[in-house]
């Protein structure tokens, strides 16, 4: 039966045609923005009560102000809070911002469960978001920056061994080939996982290197502390955090990655709230490896095990080799290429970063919004149960009593 015969009126458009034109992808074009500036404007238009934490002394490519914008929706006294973060890793914010805008539109015509509120944290790393860099203005990977610096930074011997080879002086020719060879030998000797740990787990020695966790808390890290204070998050009964990332995993799939250790109370709650789609780096079921200094440590210090969830909603884009290529070009530009992101090479690198971390493809974006709605719906439903006392929390009390920043 043809599509035409299925309809009972010749004037109706074909269903296939409607879907191809994107008619049913209602949220895709209004949710995804073309620049940081536009994303910020769109979010502020929907969050007139937002508090802006402006980054001093730096601007974006259009001389625009850079800011972390935070909006609270719902009962200010709510016991349970869902925090949705975008832009921890700069241009990955185009995706997270899309989910936030989709939800802000949905919320205009709906209400939240009793005793549950939402906090939108837009552009946690606004400099990286505006300039298409994964790292902050300090060259720091924000999701490696939350170690306890007073206690000393963790070692990464694999990184130390390969440090000269991660960002070679040239992107082609003998030095590039020598670096590829050294990396190949390391993989042969130690395996792919050990290589991933060397490259990505985080390092605290080399500000010009990849996945640098910083020498101290970054501006964005301190801003997150201010946000938690401003909205009294430490005194809530339960806080669930969904931090939206991109660039790892199958194209368009949103993997809900738990950063909790497998034996924790929070992990148990994550499993109950989201079911078997939650993956764990600790258990080896995630595409991600265990990393140093993630935002999870911040929330752990703030609330303690069993009173919070920190989950990364990580959307796949292109494969690992493509990610390595684009991140290498980005880092090379800063270490060996002068760091100008406005010139021809800089614009090209920025374009590659954008295309890698937020593919310009309506189907990818549709998959993002679909999975985003699913995960956030599950989170809200879980939090409603926690608020009503129907969800057993078996958190272990903190050793030193009250939660503290
Ligand atoms: Zn990320």
Automatic annotation (TrEMBL):
SUPFAM superfamilies membership: Zn-dependent exopeptidases
Pfam families: DUF2817 (PF10994)
InterPro entries to which the protein is assigned, alphabetical: DUF2817
Stated name of the protein: DUF2817 domain-containing protein
Species, as recorded: Bradyrhizobium ivorense
